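Input/output pair, single chain:
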Amino acid sequence: MASTNLRKHTTANPVQRALIDRFMGSAAALLDGIEVASVIEVGCGEGFLIRHLRDRHPGWRWKGVDLDEEAIGYARRLLPGVTLATGDIYALAEPDGSYDLVVASEVLEHLDRPEDGLRELVRVTGRYLLLSVPHEPWFRMANLGRGKYLSRLGNHPEHVQRWSASAFRSFVSRQATIIRTAGSFPWTIVLAEKWK
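Output:
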């Protein structure tokens, strides 16, 4: 069965497609002007964000890690030449500071221990973090408007954390310095820098 991430990125729904395209553009724009050579996306799923960002920044070296072996298999077909592996956000098999940029998009809201997940992302980055989560309560309201997850009041069944934009900035600021943010309804995206 296709993951919810795969269904989201391959939807034919024009409204959902427009929202995802806008999200991808907003995430990529946050990275413009920063000096990066190496990137790892943790929780890369099937590789759609890596593909978009790599097209905009073709000179960067990319790696993707995800817990789901099936998603990594799909990503291998989508992203020839990109290093892809299974891995756990709580215990990444990467040295301290080994990537200029660590990306975790639509990941932290799935974690029972998001502070520990963020700590591991901070450990692996040499400088930057690009992070995104659903912007609550708007994400749930959008789901309700689409008739999704009605018995859960619009909450995605895999989401265990819920942040407003300001609450997410506060959460990230406990471990890194936020440089820029972008709102791309119904998501919050931040570019942060590791403390020196």
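The first strand starts at residue 38 and ends at 42. The radius of gyration is 16 Å.
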